[in-house]
Each structure stands twice: as C-alpha cells, then as structure tokens.
Amino acid sequence: xxxxxxxxxxxxxxxxxxxxxxxxxxxxxxxxxxxxxxxxxxxxxxxxxxxxxxxxxxxxxxxxxxxxxxxxxxxxxxxxxxxxxxxxxxxxxxxxxxxxxxxxxxxxxxxxxxxxxxxxxxxxxxxxxxxxxxxxxxxxxxxxxxxxxxxxxxxxxxxxxxxxxxxxxxxxxxxxxxxxxxxxxxxxxxxxxxxxxxxxxxxxxxxxxxxxxxxxxxxxxxxxxxxxxxxxxxxxxxxxxxxxxxxxxxxxxxxxxxxxxxxxxxxxxxxxxxxxxxxxxxxxxxxxxxxxxxxxxxxxxxxxxxxxxxxxxxxxxxxxxxxxxxxxxxxxxxxxxxxxxxxxxxxxxxxxxxxxxxxxxxxxxxxxxxxxxxxxxxxxxxx
Amino acid sequence: xxxxxxxxxxxxxxxxxxxxxxxxxxxxxxxxxxxxxxxxxxxxxxxxxxxxxxxxxxxxxxxxxxxxxxxxxxxxxxxxxxxxxxxxxxxxxxxxxxxxxxxxxxxxxxxxxxxxxxxxxxxxxxxxxxxxxxxxxxxxxxxxxxxxxxxxxxxxxxxxxxxxxxxxxxxxxxxx
Lengths: 383, 176
Fold this sequence. Notes:
Chain A has helices at about 5-20, 25-30, 45-50, 55-60, 85-90, 110-120, 130-140, 175-190, 190-205, 215-225, 255-270, 275-280, 345-355, 360-365, 375-380; strands spanning about 35-40, 70-75, 80, 95-105, 145-150, 165, 235-240, 280-285, 305-310, 320, 340-345. By secondary structure, chain A is α/β, with parallel strands linked by helices. In chain A, strand 2 (about 70-75) and strand 3 (about 80) form a beta hairpin. Chain A is globular and about 70 Å long. By secondary structure, chain B is mainly α. The longest helix of chain B is centred in the first third of the chain and has 15 residues, at about 15-30. Chain B is globular. Chain B starts with a helix and ends with a helix. At the A-B interface, helix 6, strand 6, helix 8 and helix 9 of A face helix 6, helix 10 and helix 11 of B.
C-alpha cells in the first residue's frame, strides 16, 4: 500500500490533535453541558402587559388606565414592558425571544387548577403526582441534576429522584458531629431517601444563612449551573401576577413582578460563565393570561392566552414567534381573552428535546402521553 | 390498606358513616405495621407535645386576640414557624390542602428545616426540664418501642440542645 506525503501529514496531524485533547467534533458536542431554567410566574402573567401589541386602537381604548406610556422597541408589531431591561439587552444580542398568544390547553381560569396543570402538564387537575419537567428529566436520565429555588419542592420538577432544592433557612446547621450521628441512624434504619438528602446537605456548597431574595438565589443557582458537574435544571418561582386591582402600567404591581423576573435573568447572566450562559435556556411558565379589558379597579381578570419569555444562548434568534389571533371581539377567546394559538406544551417539549438531547417524539410520548404536539425546536432553539 | 374502605363503600352504597368506620378501623389495625414520614406540621406538634415545650402559645393567649386588632408577636408565632418549616397553614398550593405523600416532604431544604428547628426547639423547653436528668428518659420510655437503644443514641452527646436535635431527627420519630 502506498501512502502519499499528503495522507501521511493528514494522519499525523489528526493523531497529534487527538492526543492534545481535541477528540473530534462529535465528542465535543456530547460533552457540552446544557442547562434548562424554568421561571414560574404564579398568578397569571399578563402577556399583553409584558409584550404589548403596537398600533391597536381598540386595545389602547380597552386599557385606557393601564396602558404603558413608555415601552422598549422589539419588532414592528410588538413592544416590550420597560421593566424588562435585561431581556431587552439580551434581545439586542440575539439572546432572548418570546412566544406570544400561547398557553397550556386550560380555559377554566382557576389559579389552583391552572397552576397544577401548568406544572403537571396534564389535562385533569390533581390527577398527576409528577411534573412535566420531572418526567422529562427522568426520560433523559437526569437523576440528581435538578435544583429548585423554592420551598417545598414544586410539583413541576417531581418525578425524578434526588433533586436538590435551595431556599436558605437563615440559621446554622447543627454541628457536623451531630449530623454524622443522625446519618448513622438513617443508615441503620435503612432510610435511603433521607440518607441521600442528608448527603446532599453535607456535601453541597450553599450558604444556609443567606437571604431568600430571588435574585440572590439566582446568583447561587448561576454559579452551580456553570459547574461542569453541577445541576442541569433549575426552577424558580415569582408570585404576585394576580393583579385584579391597581395593576399599574409602566410602574405598579405587574411591573414589579416583571422586574422580579428580569432580576433573576440578570443575576443568572452575571453569575454564569459565558460558556454556561451560551448553553442555557431560560423559559417562563404561567397558568393563564389576563383579560383584554381593564376592570373598574384598574386591574384585569383571569384570562387565557399569554406569552412565554425566553432567554439564554440556546435561543435561536431575537423574535416574537406567534400565530397572532387578533384582538377584535370575535377573535378573542369567549369574547374577552387573548386566544391561545400555540399549545405551550409544544414549546416546553421542544425545549427539553433541545437541552436534554432527547428525541422530540420520545419526549411527547413519555412526558405528555403521546399528545400530537408540533416540534418547534428548529424555529425557536439552537440545536 | 385501601381495600376494606373500598369494600365498605361498595357494601354500603357510599354511606359516609360506614366508610368512616372502615377508615378508622384500618387506621387502628395498620398503625403499627406501616410507618409514614410525618408532615412538618405534625412533626412540630409532636415535638411540642413530647418535649412539653412552651409552644404553641396557650389557648388563653390565642383567645385574647381581639378582632380588628393586630395579633401580638406571640399570637403570630405559630403561623411564622409553620411558614418557616415549609408548611404554612393557609398557603397550600392546591385547594385540597397539602400533600400527604411522604416523598413530597423529603428534600434537602425540608430536611434542613427539621435539623434546624429540632435544634431551635430547645429554646422553648421549660427551665425545670433542662436541668432534669430524667427528662429524656421519661420521653423515650413513654414514646419509643426500644427505649434503651434510643437512650444509647442520645447519650452520645452531652448537651441538651444536641440531644433535642438527635431525638427529633431519629427515624423512629420522623416516621409514625
């Protein structure tokens, strides 16, 4: 067999690169750690307040007391609430996007039922004892790689064992020697789950005396998500979106909640390494949107369609992805709410497929009971 | 465990008193056979009862609240403590109340609450008990199946605050 000089050089160059630690493109991709962060916006986030539609006189008239007098520009059709400064800054770098007129397929307008369904991913409230994210992690084999910044463990992430949660108690733990005796007792009584959780407490690098402010929690989470062997999934909660009265506009109750969300994203971005943030997807989740029309208390009632805010390096591009249903009376859901034209479970299934590197069909089958959901991975996320 | 209740439902055509009777019977018959990880609220009340603590505030203290006024710090303490251990009385995330599944109450942060508040419960113990050497013996003798084993476990530490932490985090106490 004849070996040409060119072939010889190619072979030796590849061998040298291999031993230098460059194992080839496919190995490098498999080794990249990707993170999924879900921020639950409890109370019903008003998608039309976060991302108002431009130039709709009817909409402006229906919300005359809670219209935004100042906005940030997104596209020719949509603006952004000024409280979402970090989101806008990421948008300018192609690191944030939104899906509008979307919701889980739930129209009952009850917080209890809606929040249960947004977390379980089911259709009948309280039927499921696990969350769609927990089932997705189980499908992907991500045991022990979830971190909830909440107390107790949210339903959303239940369904896979050994998740961690962090919500500082503000006090010191007992002495290590006392904890060791308790650990021995757990072992003696074969309390595996208790023992595993105690092991997490003893080995993790969290400050139990810290504050439980969301942005401080986000900073701790960002550090953990950046670690190669750290968690791959994190869950946050922001309460208070249920603004029946004095919703406010540029400032006020809803703006404060949007600001809480924005602070979490800002804190994540600043605490994560650039590489980690570039391989992260941050999505919001809410139970429903709010009515188009303001009520007599200058608030809004429970509605249907809302928006999902997305951030991180795995967002495909800055865009408002929507199949806009319109805001004329006949286009509204039951004549009062923004309609939902995109099943938000399709977005979450696509996100899990992208981040967990699991086939989309497998996700829909194992997590959403084989529901016929469209795969939006290519449209919304970087593969 | 469920079958006798299902049978009572079918036999009585859903007559509630019969179903309740069956449920109570099952609870008594199976109590010793199946142990369940206690919810934080149950656990805290058990500590207060077994440890003869100066908590919760007395019925007289709570009854002294006058409608329309701000509750006192003492009157607010049960709510605050339950919130801190992750089991707020009015903030269940579903209308049928808090979960009664053991697994839902086991996570690092929830376990930290048990460790930290078992330790803190020492601050609510009565002065006469702190100085009484037979205090723990009496608790253990009355409430545990194998008192000598539990006492051996407790006696590995000398300070009362550590004995509190050990006792109220022992598997036999966490599960009932």
